[in-house]
Amino acid sequence: MTATLDIGVQTDYAVRLSGVGKTFGQGRRAVTALDGVDLDVAPGEFVCLLGASGCGKTTVLNLVAGLDAPSAGEIELNTSRPAVMFQEAALMPWLTAARNVELPLRLAGVKRADRRARADELLDLVRLSGVGDKRPHELSGGMRQRVALARALASAVDGDANSLLLMDEPFSALDAITRDVLQSELVRIWRATETAVLFVTHDVREAVRLGQRVVLLSSRPGRVVQEWHVDELNPAAQPAVVDEINARLHEVISSHAG
Questions:
Q1: Which of 13, 40, 146, 165 has the fewest C-beta atoms lying within 10 Å of its C-beta?
Q2: Does the residue 120 lie in any domain?
Q3: How many domains does the chain have?
Q4: In this structure, is residue 139 part of a structural domain?
Q5: Where are the beta strands (DSSP E) in the chain?
Q6: Where does the ABC transporter domain lie (predicted)?
C-alpha cells in the first residue's frame, strides 16, 4: 500500500504510521528493511527513533518525508510540508546563509520582503544574527548546521500547529563540544517553535537527553520493540533510563546476531 496524506485535518497526531513495511528489490534479492511499524508522533512532541545501524531508522524518515513509498501499511500526515535535516548541512555554496534559509520560502511563493524578514527571524532564533551575508565556506561546521536548521524550520514552521521536522543524525559529524551545544540549542528552539520532531539517532544518551519519548527499533527488519517516556523535569533520572535502554539495545542486537 502507499502513503495516505490527510493534510490540514485537525487530529491528535502530526504523523501516524500504521503497519508500515518497506522491501527493497524483488525475488531472492529482496531485502525487508521495515516490517509492521506502528508509530504516532503527536503535535509538538519530540520523539527519538533509536536503533543499531541498518535497522531502518533513515528509511522511516524517507517514507515520512515522501522521498520513498512504503511497500505495506499507511502513513498519515497532518502537515503539508514535513522538513528534513540531514547529517550534512547540504547548503547551496553559492548562496549566503540568509538566502539558503529563504530558499524553501521562495519555492513556496513567499514574497521577497516577507521571506527576508522570516530568514532574519530564524537566523536570530538559531543565534546567527549578523551572519546572513556569509557563505557556507565562511562558517564553521556547527554554524552551517544552525543555518540548515533555520532552513528546515522555514519549511516546517508556517503557523501550522501540526508542523513536523524530521532530523537524521544531524549532529553526528560534529565534535563533542559543538554537538553538546547544538543539542541544547535544539531543545530551546523546539520549545520556542512547538513543532513536532522525529529525530533519528544511534546514540542512547542523545536520545534520552533530547526526546520526550524514545522508540527503539529492532535490527533488520525494523520493528518497534519498546518505547520509553523521558521525564524532562527530572534529569537525575536520565542515567537510569540510559542504562535500561542500553541493556535492551544490546539484547536486541545479540538476539539478531544469534
A1: 40
A2: yes
A3: 1
A4: yes
A5: 4-5, 15-24, 31-41, 46-50, 72-77, 83-85, 164-168, 196-201, 213-217, 224-229
A6: 15-244
